[in-house]
From TrEMBL:
Its main location: membrane. It holds the Pfam family ABC2_membrane. GO terms for molecular function: ABC-type transporter activity. Residues 22-243 form the ABC transmembrane type-2 domain. Keywords: Capsule biogenesis/degradation, Cell membrane, Membrane, Polysaccharide transport, Sugar transport, Transmembrane, Transmembrane helix, Transport. This is Transport permease protein. Belongs to the ABC-2 integral membrane protein family. It is found in: Cell inner membrane; Cell membrane. One of its GO terms (biological process) is polysaccharide transport. InterPro entries: ABC2_TM (IPR013525), ABC2_TM_bact-type (IPR047817), ABC_2_transport (IPR000412).
Length: 250
């Protein structure tokens, strides 16, 4: 299984990053440009960000976990479609394809997040008072949530092609309600009551708790994120196991 997963990871590296100029450089440039764009736009309208005084750091702590979740969830959801030719071999299963995509993309995003946050601290000469345990917890929960959502969507998108379009339409506001732009605490009470049930909001809050030592993020519940992730993962894998062969014929 280990050899199969490593082989699939090497194939993904070649197909995802080997075809574009610069390869892995784009994996770093894309989030950097995203954070830079948010910083420029909001610095024109606001005097200071929601936390601290540095716009790039604030938006990086919100945008990077969101991008990590979105990318891993989409990669897991399309794992069967991406590796369909290899699934004809008895030694390759859909679990292998999922593991390969999860491990590779989680490591890639964790590295990118580390490089971007370090770069912001160095460029702007910010004091380093990070809580590495909280940052690691945020990355772990974000990955777990992405795997759960991705596994459930893997079955739904493969079994019902129209679901993929419906999912993308339904989740477009996710960027606005995940705490990327504004803190949860400054939102109206009615908005808070609804936003709390977005598990990605909790992952972003934990990330900011790790970067900003004075930010407590009392609304955060790691147990809620874990519960949602495990439930989605359980039902996703259950449906995939029961309908695996049928899905390959579609």
């Amino acid at each position: 299984m280990l050899r199969t997963v490593v082989a699939l990871m090497l194939r993904e590296i070649a197909t995802t990053y080997g075809r574009s100029a610069g390869g892995y450089i784009w994996a770093v440039l894309e989030p950097v440009l995203g954070v830079a764009l948010l910083s420029v736009l909001f610095s024109m309208a606001l005097r200071s960000p929601g936390l601290g005084t540095n716009f790039p750091l604030f938006y990086a702590t919100g945008f990077l976990p969101f991008a990590m979740f979105n990318d891993i969830a989409n990669k897991v959801a399309t794992s069967i479609r991406f590796s369909r030719p290899f699934l004809a071999y008895p030694c390759v299963t859909f679990v292998d394809t999922m593991l390969a995509r999860v491990v590779l993309n989680a490591l890639t995003h964790a590295t990118v997040i580390g490089l971007v946050l370090t770069g912001i601290h160095v460029i702007y000469q910010l004091p380093v008072m990070t809580n590495m345990l909280a940052i690691f917890e945020s990355l772990l929960l974000t990955t777990l949530l992405a795997v759960g959502v991705g596994a459930f969507n893997c079955y739904m998108m493969t079994a019902f092609p129209v679901y993929e379009r419906a999912w993308h339409i339904a989740t477009r506001p996710l960027f606005l309600v995940s705490g990327v732009f504004f803190l949860y605490e400054i939102m109206p009470a009615k908005a808070q009551a609804l936003m709390w049930f977005n598990p990605l909001l909790h992952c972003v809050g934990i990330m900011r708790r790790g970067v900003y030592p004075t930010y407590e993020a009392n609304y955060v519940s790691a147990l809620f994120v874990i519960s949602v992730s495990v439930i989605l993962l359980f039902f996703g894998l259950l449906m995939l196991v029961r309908n695996y062969r049928i899905l390959l014929e579609r």
